[in-house]
Every structure is written in structure tokens, then in C-alpha cells.
Amino acid sequence: DLGHATGQWVDRQGHTHAFFYDIATATFTDIHVKGASDVFAYGINNNDNVVVGTPDAAYVWCQTRETCPAR
Known about the structure:
- This protein has strands at residues 4-10, 16-22, 27-31, 40-44, 50-53, 58-61.
- By secondary structure, the chain is mostly beta strands.
- The strands form two sheets. A three-stranded antiparallel sheet has the order 1-2-3, with no helix packed on it.
- It is globular, with a radius of gyration of 12 Å.
């Protein structure tokens, strides 16, 4: 959204990795969830918050603390 995208890719071991992509700079940021071997990206909003999921739970990934929703 707003020049950013999110998605996922699968490595050679079959694990899914979510990413955040900045179109203007052609920069990928791998989205890690501690302890998860598979992370899926489902959507992005205008604040660059990404909805991600693992086999165990769902999360909101934020590029900066300032744009993250309150807990």
C-alpha cells in the first residue's frame, strides 16, 4: 500500500517466509516471528502494518513502533 507490498516466499526446505517490499527502493524486509518456522503475510494498511500469521497465531507486524496499534 502507498508504494509498499507484502507477500511470502518458500525456501528450499519448504518453509514460508513473509516479507515487506518497498517498491521505490526495491528493498525487501523479511518478517520474522520468534520461534516460527512458517510466517504468512495476509495484508497491509496505509501505516505499513502487515497482518501475518503462523501455524499457531496471528500478529500485526509494524515497521516502526510509532505506527503500531496499541496493545
